[in-house]
Amino acid sequence: MKKSVLFDFIVDRENNQIRVDRSFQAPLDLVWAAWTEAEILDHWWAPRPYRNETKSMDFRPGGRWHYAMLSPEGERHWCYFDYATIEHQKFYSGKDGFCDENGVATNIAPNMQWHNEFEDRGTDTVVHVHISFHKPEDLETIVNMGFKEGFTMGMGNLDEYFAALFNR
Amino acid sequence: MRYNLISTIFYAIKGLRIYLQSIRCITMFSMRRDIFQAIADPTRRAIIMLLAVQSLTPNALAAHFQVSRQAISKHLQILTECEVLAPEQKGREIQYHLKADKMKDIEKWLEQFRALMARRFEQLDEVLNQLKRGS
Predict the structure, then answer these.
(1) Picking from A74-88, A118-132, B67-81, B101-115, which range would have the lowest pLDDT averaged per residue?
(2) Are strands B93-98 and A7-12 parallel, antiparallel or unpaired?
(3) Fewer CB atoms inside 10 A, N or C side of chain A?
(4) How much is the average pLDDT of B21-40?
(5) A8 to B25: CB separation less than 8 angstroms, yes or no
(6) How confident is the model at residue A98, as a pLDDT?
(7) Does the residue A1 lie in any domain?
(8) Exposure pattern of A25-54 as b/e (b: 16+ CB <10 Å)?
(9) Is A10's CB within 8 Å of B27's CB?
């Protein structure tokens, strides 16, 4: 019997947070490695048809993951993740943002604060993701910036998404 | 132009409701701030559709409904707090207009972000399966 997958996506606008809980059918050490090692991250972080390419990875407090998401047309969307706190196989936190190929941030403020917690449940693992925005306006800024950066992830626009839902 | 706006808003509202039902997405808001709460009520959905056509005063809106003028005021208050509507002084009257762009943009981004996370996690599922098999 296939174990059901937990996936909660909670938007808490009052506290300017997004909380995501997702279970993975793998032990904690594998899941932790998948989230923190560049070789593995490059296989899943960018949504297909995009491909993830790490330029540099320094997984330690104060360190940075510098990577690009490569579009099928060959465009690179450069991103960074600056690590703040790390506790091995328990949690890590940091800030992400858009940048250029030299790692120079393209906006003054980072996009979002992340705090990822890893819950050991034996044969499976739950990752609790906490994303926060400092001010309500930050979400609006990110929305506008996201559209400006042109990173639409090939997901299609909202109308198409809903049209697909209706046609099921 | 108006027709496109109305049809987009109609589908956005309809889609947002289905989105809530079909995906286990729990939104925790106070009563006042929740855009999903805003559209959960049928009278409020009707108000949004009316204002998609043109800006209206509270009295002109209330004329469309059986409910009391106070009930309409309450709905307008909730919709304003959710920033779906905004009041504007037009001479001696207040008119409400739809803040369609904001509603669309933020919800569109949230949906894209949720879809991004979902897609990433499905890919991670595959990667973890391969790792478990030791390949």
Answers:
(1) B101-115
(2) unpaired
(3) N
(4) 46
(5) yes
(6) 84
(7) no
(8) bbbbebbbbbbbebebbbbbbbbeebbbee
(9) yes
For chain A, positions 39-98, list CB contacts with chain B under 8 A.
Answer: 40, 43-48
- How far is CA B132 from its chain centroid? 42
B126 contacts in A (CB within 8 Å)?
44
Q: Could you say which architecture CATH assigns to the domain B2-99? A: Orthogonal Bundle (1.10)
Nearest Cα residue to B84 out of B50, B127, B59: B50
Which chain B residue has its CA at the smallest distance from A138's CA?
B106
Considering its fold, how many domains does chain A have in total? 1
Query: pLDDT value at position A106?
Result: 80
Instruction: Tell me what pLDDT residue A160 has.
Output: 45
Residue with more model confidence, B83 or A64: A64
Cβ(A35)–Cβ(A26) below 8 Å: no
Residue A152 maps to which CATH number? Answer: 3.30.530.20
Residue B20, pLDDT > 60, answer no
Per-residue confidence (pLDDT) for residue B26, from 0 to 100: 37
Phi, psi angles (nearest 5°) of residue B14 = -60, -45
**Residue A153 zone, left/alpha/beta (φ > 0; ψ -120 to 50; rest):** left
Q: Which domain holds residue A129?
A: 7-166
Share of chain B above pLDDT 90, in %: 27
Residue B28 has pLDDT above 60, yes or no: no
- Give domain status of residue A36, yes or no: yes
Contact call for residues A69 and A81 (beta carbons, < 8 A): no
Domain assignment present for residue A59? The answer is: yes
User: Is the reported ipTM for this assembly greater than 0.85?
Assistant: no
Residue A2 lies in a domain: no
